[in-house]
Amino acid sequence: MDLLIFWDARAPSGIQAALSRELEVLLPLTPAVCESHFVVTGYIPSRRQTDASVLLDSLDLYKKRTGISHPILLVVSEDLCRSGDEYLFGLSRESTGSAVVSTARLENEYYGLPEDDEDLIDRLVKESAHEVGHLLGLRHCRNSECIMYNPLVLDDINRQKRWFCPECRVFTG
Question: N or C: fewer beta carbons within 10 Å in the chain?
Answer without folding.
Answer: C
